[in-house]
């Protein structure tokens, strides 16, 4: 009898451990699924995921992405400032990056005020600014670090717009 009781206790302990592990893994999977679902709505999920990290709230995710986009735009603006003399396309990018920063700051302020329409207007303007920069390089057949940065900024801006549509 003692052997049978020991077997039943061990079986119960293993079953309880398995249940706890399944619960832990399923809750982590649900969290990862929420994050993945948020980014899966965007055009460039691989650019979205590192910026959004574990945020599942669309408003917070949009805010974080706008902040990251502002930081990346400032870096691109610094890069453009280094090379703008003598290159009209980079000069244009410098100007459009400056405009984009203004639009992104206003988009961030709009999200705090819960004014989604204004935020979308400013985000659309920023994406357009990045697009103007990219098109100038395409027209001239140039490829450089400023153009590469502008392409990434436009993609992240597009993701911002998509995330903003999820805000309720």
UniProtKB/TrEMBL annotation:
Domain of life: Eukaryota
Domain Pectinesterase inhibitor stretches: 30-163
MF term (GO), any: enzyme inhibitor activity
Signal peptide positions on this chain: 1-32
Pfam families found in the cross-reference section: PMEI
Alphabetically ordered keywords of this record: Signal
Protein name: Pectinesterase inhibitor domain-containing protein
Origin species: Brassica cretica
């Amino acid at each position: 009898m003692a052997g049978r009781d020991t077997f039943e206790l061990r079986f119960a302990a293993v079953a309880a451990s398995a249940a706890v592990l399944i619960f832990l893994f399923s809750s982590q999977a649900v969290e990862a699924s929420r994050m993945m679902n948020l980014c899966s709505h965007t055009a460039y999920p691989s650019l979205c995921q590192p910026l959004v990290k574990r945020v599942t709230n669309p408003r917070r995710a949009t805010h974080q992405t706008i902040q990251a986009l502002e930081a990346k735009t400032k870096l691109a603006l610094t890069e453009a400032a280094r090379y703008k003399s003598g290159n009209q396309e980079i000069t244009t990018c410098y100007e459009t990056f400056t405009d984009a920063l203004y639009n992104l700051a206003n988009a961030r302020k709009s999200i705090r005020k819960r004014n989604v329409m204004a935020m979308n207007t400013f985000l659309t303007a920023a994406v357009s600014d990045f697009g103007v920069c990219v098109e100038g390089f395409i027209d001239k057949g140039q490829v450089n670090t400023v153009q590469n940065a502008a392409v990434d900024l436009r993609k992240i801006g597009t993701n911002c717009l998509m995330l903003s549509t999820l805000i309720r």
